[in-house]
Amino acid sequence: MASLNKVILIGNLTRDPELRSTPGGTSVVNFGIAVNRRYTNRDGEKVEDVDFFNIVVWGKMGETCHTYIKKGTPVAIEGRLSSRSWQTEDGQKRTAVEVIAENVQFLGRGGRSDDEFGDSEAAVPEDNVPF
């Protein structure tokens, strides 16, 4: 039987990317995004809702995200869902569902001003873009 695990999201960062490294030296970056959702309810009222997602980006792409984006930046994420479970020190079971990003596209400057990037044309060198 065929299976597919594919996610595409467009939203804004809810927090600055956090860079860490594994014991083996591989970079991993975590950040959150908010995705707005608009719909009309049964009463005909227009409703705006927000969904929040945790994003994980590995390796060079993660390092690039850490360097060039921050809270408020609009991004497009392409990846897969991953769930994990663990037990806290006090014995409570926790689970998390995250998006493991395979591709991250920067859609704008969002929370950063042009001054923080300097010349906007030279902000992201072409050889460092993860897409």
Description of the molecule:
This protein is mainly beta. Strand 3 (27-40) and strand 4 form a beta hairpin. The chain has helices spanning 59-68, 114-117; strands spanning 7-13, 18-21, 27-40, 46-58, 74-87, 93-106. The chain contains two helices and six strands; from the N terminus they run ββββαββα. The longest helix has 10 residues, at 59-68. It has one domain (7-117): OB fold (Dihydrolipoamide Acetyltransferase, E2P) (Beta Barrel).
Quick structural gist:
The protein has 131 residues and is mainly β.
As for the number of domains, it is 1
What is the tally of helical segments? 2
Unreliable sequence segments: 111-131
| Assembly category | single chain
| CATH homologous superfamily label | Nucleic acid-binding proteins
Q: Which series of helices and strands comes N to C?
A: EEEEHEEH
Helix content: 10-25%
By helix and strand content, what is the structural category?
Answer: mainly beta
Give, in spatial order, the strands making up the sheet with the most strands: 1-3-4-6-5
Ends distance: 31 Å
CATH-scheme architecture: Beta Barrel
Q: How large a portion of the residues is in β-strands, by DSSP E?
A: over 45%
What is the alpha-carbon Rg in Å?
A: 17 Å
Shape: globular
Largest sheet, in brief, is: 5 strands, mixed, barrel
Number of separate strands: 6
Mean pLDDT rating: 86
